[in-house]
């Protein structure tokens, strides 16, 4: 039942992002995007559940494409902190692998797709240390940073807008 609910949410998100929701009318974000040329966002990813995290990786791709389709150049950065880092290794723990094996493969694919879109993805070294992740095993599309909070502060100081994803 939970998977059906998540599927329905994903379909609705994609429908809204592509503007196919109402016959004869185009759903868009024109009021929010008025005169905007570049949309700078820094996504704080702090999710303990692998399935939920994978869902949001797909939604962020839709957000990127939706913004682009509305004439705004997306400039996105994702910063993974906390328990989310345990799903970003080529050698996850035995427990993580046993619980989320198939989801981990989907997540790896979504990380690759985000990178192909030009989304910068950073992983907090404080979190990898706290969760016992060997930094050498991080997915190759990811950039290791010293402290995710510092990264978030820096991007916001550069004009990026914080999008917390929990």
From TrEMBL:
InterPro entries cross-referenced by the UniProt entry: DsrEFH-like (IPR027396), Sulphur_relay_DsrE/F-like (IPR003787)
Ordered alphabetically, the record's keywords are: Signal
Question: Where is the secretion signal located?
Answer: 1-23
Name the SUPFAM superfamilies for this protein: DsrEFH-like
The family database entries (Pfam families) matched by this protein are listed as: DsrE
Q: What is this protein called?
A: Uncharacterized protein
